[in-house]
């Protein structure tokens, strides 16, 4: 596991800084104060940007990822599928157990008005953890594992972070929802990658798993 962190420090260093800063913020301020601070800053360009970017956190994003991995390495397809299944299972289970209100419900009860981005469908409950954030952090953490370029690893963290921020910008989630969602996503990615890369069962088929499912000249492996 240490070697995995070392090879992907370009992703994990900013992520650990996010966890430290975020944990401090959650310890010092309550969720409504943090959300009101975020909700103060908005403009039409940011509305458009974040309302589109947030879609990358939908579960359907696994489809283009898998289509690309078909040409890279079969083992990565298995890892990605397992990572997404773990993310959805853990995230949805926590949502059902915790059943926490989202910003529109909390601030409605407090008779406070939030800025809401036009044409964005708002949800009222099952806020913790954020599913979009969990999916994004799982997906981009795995892509960092599959990538050697450190600048790309940093880029993947930034995109995952911005997707998480979009959930707060759109007032779909509190910061604590995004914070926990990121942990679910990264934890699922680490678990799936470690299992499929190291488990003896999978390594028995290494010759087949470590080739692309479809090679560049179109012949199936």
Write the layout of secondary structure elements.
Blueprint: H1 2-7, H2 9-28, H3 31-39, H4 44-53, H5 62-69, H6 74-98, H7 103-109, H8 131-146, H9 150-169, H10 175-198, H11 200-203, H12 206-209
Coarse structural class: mainly alpha
- Low-pLDDT ranges: none
β-strand percent reads: under 5%
Report, as a whole number of angstroms, the end-to-end distance: 30 Å
Silhouette: elongated
Mean pLDDT: 95
Counted by DSSP, the helix tally is: 12
The biggest beta sheet reads: none
Tally the beta strands.
0
What is Rg?
19 Å
The portion of residues assigned to helices is 55-70%
Write down the secondary-structure element order: HHHHHHHHHHHH
Assembly level: single chain
Our count of domains comes out at 1
Verbal overview:
69% of the residues lie in helices and 0% in strands. It starts with a helix and ends in a 12-residue tail after the last helix. It has one domain. α2 runs parallel beside α9, α6 (74-98) packs antiparallel against α10 (175-198) and α8 packs antiparallel against α9. The protein has helices at 2-7, 9-28, 31-39, 44-53, 62-69, 74-98, 103-109, 131-146, 150-169, 175-198, 200-203, 206-209.
Q: What does this entry show, briefly?
A:
The model has no long low-confidence stretch (mean pLDDT 95).
Give structural attributes.
221 residues; mainly alpha; 0% strand
